[in-house]
Design a protein that fits this description.
Length: 99
């Protein structure tokens, strides 16, 4: 009986991890959508609601995905996707290459 539970948890963990990663990726896509909302032919009130909803949804998706993949993976993803770190990472790569 115990062996059956072990194989069940091992089989579902990768699926939960994959779903979590998909949620995190989708959250970054949703974060970008507010950039296009001002150009839609809708009222200003609807634009404000759309932008706010997209930002809230993106945060919720990210944190639900982060809970699924684990704390360390979520921190690493967030650090890589932070634009503040892009320039320093590029400079580090250049220094390693000898340029």
């Amino acid at each position: 009986m115990e062996e059956m539970m072990d194989t069940e948890s091992k089989a579902t963990k990768p699926l939960i991890y994959k779903i979590g990663m998909i949620l995190i990726i989708v959250s970054f896509v949703v974060w970008v959508t507010p950039l296009g909302i001002p150009f839609l032919p809708i009222s200003g009130k609807m634009k404000a609601i759309g932008i706010t909803s997209a930002l809230v949804l993106a945060e919720v998706l990210f944190w639900v995905g982060a809970l699924m993949v684990g704390k360390e993976a979520a921190k690493k993803i967030r650090r890589v996707m932070n634009p503040k770190n892009w320039k320093s990472r590029r400079n580090d790569d250049r220094q390693e290459g000898g340029e």
